[in-house]
Amino acid sequence: MSDEHKAALAEGRAEGRAVRDYLEALRSTRPKRGRKRTPESIRARLDKIESSMADASAIEELQLVQERRDLEAELASMDSGVDIEALESAFVDVAKSYAERKGISYASWRDVGVPAAVLKRAGISRGS
Questions:
Q1: Are 72 and 37 in contact, with CB atoms under 8 Å apart?
Q2: What residues have CB less than 8 Å from 84, skipping those under 6 apart?
Q3: Rounded Cα distance, 42 and 27, in Å
Q4: Which of 35, 44, 115, 122 is the most buried (most CB within 10 A)?
Q5: Which class for 109: exposed (0-12), middle (13-18), buried (19 or more C-beta within 10 A)?
Q6: Annotated domain spans of the chain
Q7: What is the predicted pLDDT for the residue at 60?
């Protein structure tokens, strides 16, 4: 394998990683239906779960334990926060060449939630 070929493979992997990371961040920060949960509302529910554990049946306790785990994970993910601006910047740098190489259209990017303004900054137009 030539050095040029190795460099092209490395570039493709780097572009793919930037695209994947940005799309995953978009997916994870997408607004969900219903009332938005806040860290305070999650903590309040965790307190309520703890107080309900003493009187719970075995099945109810199991469900409460699982709900507590889910809420703790959600709370931890809120605290970690994703630097969407950095991921977006990396995406903008590689999106056009990635789209051309993979044959991905403007409409497909939009269908997976990439904002039109981001595509414009990346140089991807509706005619793409």
A1: no
A2: 25, 26, 29
A3: 21
A4: 122
A5: buried
A6: 3-122
A7: 94
